Amino acid sequence: MNYSRQRESILQYLRSTKCHPTAETIYQNIQSENPNISLGTVYRNLTLLSEVGQIQKLTFFDGPDRYDANIVPHYHFVCTKCGAVLDLEMDSLSHINLLAAHNFEGTIENHMAFFYGKCPNCAKHISKEL
User: Fold this and answer.
1) How far apart are CA 74 and CA 106, in angstroms?
2) pLDDT of amino acid 105
3) Is-contact 107 101, C-beta < 8 A?
4) In the chain, helix, strand, coil percent, each to 5?
5) Which DSSP letter does residue 61 get?
6) Do 14 and 68 touch, CB atoms closer than 8 A?
């Protein structure tokens, strides 16, 4: 993969945050240092970085894809109120691959799990409303 100043800027931004931004958020945050960059360029570079394994693309059923520079296997929490995506600090659930493979004739190679609920900030606001 050839070096690209724009791609490097995207990667640096992702490494500087833990907020799991959307492509639009990344675009807005790097546009000041890359005034000629387009949203399409951001999307193309995110796709490429994801395909070569330098970042993770997090796809949800509802809402835009999010991106994560942390490529070490880990789990994510999604707030059903504000939409925040947070890293969860927890032990691996790798044994789930064995459970899933028990009555499956194919091969289980990996898994991805998202946990849903209210983030600490939203949970605080809800408890104050009650």
Assistant:
1) 24
2) 94
3) yes
4) 40, 15, 50
5) S
6) yes
Which of 70, 67, 75, 58 lies closest to 114 in space, CA to CA? 75
Helical H segments across the chain, by residue range = 5-15, 23-30, 39-51, 95-101, 120-129
Report yes or no: 6 and 34 within 8 Å, Cβ to Cβ: yes
Enter the pTM of the model. Answer: 0.85
Neighbours of 110 (CB within 10 A): 7
66 beta partners: 58
Q: Which residues of the chain have pLDDT under 70?
A: 127, 129-130
- DSSP category for residue 77: E
- Among 49, 81, 79, 82, smallest CA distance to 67 is for 49
